[in-house]
């Protein structure tokens, strides 16, 4: 982005510094796979280290802002209108298994609305960025959502419930409605990147339940600034508050959202 704000440049710096450290840790994961107790604890430490790094960089420059992250208790800022929302390692399970698909996600909220966003994929060196009213970008290329209008040509992303989560029946019903009318559904295990890929036109849409604010805050703005539509699974609700989201390119949004909502 040629005219990034001071806040966005600060977010980019924090994401890149944390990303470099995470790559070093990721390269160690393979060495830990032989251990029965090592990898999970190691990745937990990597996750926390990344959040500490991001928090240190952001809070040093903007000490009055609030901070909501995955790993530590929320900090209520002296400025109640501004809050960082951070997922230091989105795709932790991928990271743990040596799968090179995970990201750093940073959003800035102002008066309850996301105004700046970063999703950084260190492995592929793809930096997705957006500011409210200024468009969305990946590295130096402007992002646009897909223009596909034929449902049978579209592909979608979602998360699949694991570990006994209670939303499995709903998700299976979703798949039963969506799979027959599209070209495929992907489950890549990193919601922030799923939304970034919708913004980039790689996916035509994304839906998921039981997410946290830090999973999707940055991705929501990326999709909107790339020309896409975002809503809660219950129409008119705020996904960042409910953790339930539908995001898609406008040409197929109505049909896709109708399928998700059953």
Q: State the CATH class of the largest domain.
A: Alpha Beta
Strand content: 15-25%
CATH topological fold name of the largest domain: Fructose-1,6-Bisphosphatase, Chain A, domain 1
Please give the share of residues in helix: 40-55%
Uncertain spans, ≥5 residues at pLDDT below 50? none
The count of helical stretches stands at: 8
* Helix-strand sequence: HHEEHEEEEEEHEHEHEHEH
Going by CATH, the architecture of the largest domain would be 2-Layer Sandwich
Major beta-sheet overview: 7 strands, mixed
Per the principal axes of the C-alpha atoms, what is the gross shape? Answer: globular
Strand order of the largest sheet: 1-2-3-4-5-6-7
CATH superfamily of the largest domain: Fructose-1,6-Bisphosphatase, subunit A, domain 1
Number of strands: 12
Q: Mean of the pLDDT scores?
A: 93
Summarize, please.
40% of the residues lie in helices and 23% in strands. The protein has 262 residues and is an alpha+beta fold.
Topology at a glance:
Elements: H1 6-32, H2 38-61, E1 66-69, E2 82-90, H3 92-96, E3 103-110, E4 113-121, E5 126-131, E6 135-138, E7 141-142, E8 155-158, H4 168-178, E9 184-186, H5 191-199, E10 205-208, H6 213-225, E11 229-231, H7 239-242, E12 245-248, H8 250-261
Parallel strand pairs: 1-2, 8-9, 8-10
Antiparallel strand pairs: 2-3, 3-4, 4-5, 5-6, 6-7, 10-12, 11-12
Helix pairs in contact: 1-2, 5-6
């Amino acid at each position: 982005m040629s005219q990034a704000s001071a806040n966005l440049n600060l977010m980019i710096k924090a994401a890149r510094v944390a990303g470099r450290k995470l790559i070093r840790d990721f390269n160690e994961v393979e060495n830990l796979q032989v251990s029965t107790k090592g990898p999970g604890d190691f990745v937990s430490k990597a996750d926390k280290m990344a959040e500490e790094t991001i928090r240190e960089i952001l809070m040093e420059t903007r000490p009055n802002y609030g901070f909501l992250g995955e790993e530590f208790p929320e900090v209520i800022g002296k400025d109640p209108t501004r809050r960082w929302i951070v997922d230091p390692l989105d795709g932790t399970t991928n990271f743990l298994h040596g799968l090179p698909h995970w990201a750093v996600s940073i959003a800035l909220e102002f008066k309850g609305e996301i105004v700046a966003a970063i999703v950084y994929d260190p492995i592929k060196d793809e930096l997705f960025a957006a500011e409210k009213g200024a468009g969305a970008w990946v590295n130096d290329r402007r992002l646009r959502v897909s223009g596909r209008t034929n449902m049978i040509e579209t592909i979608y992303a979602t998360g699949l419930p694991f570990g006994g989560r209670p939303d499995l029946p709903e998700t299976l019903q979703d798949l039963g409605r969506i799979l027959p009318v599209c070209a495929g559904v992907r489950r890549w295990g990193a919601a922030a990147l799923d939304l970034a890929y919708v913004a980039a036109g790689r996916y035509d849409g994304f839906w998921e339940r039981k997410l946290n604010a830090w999973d999707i805050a940055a991705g929501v703005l990326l999709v909107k600034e790339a020309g896409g539509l975002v809503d809660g699974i219950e129409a008119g609700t705020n996904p960042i508050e409910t953790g339930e989201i539908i995001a898609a390119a406008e040409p197929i949004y109505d049909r896709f959202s109708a399928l998700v909502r059953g």
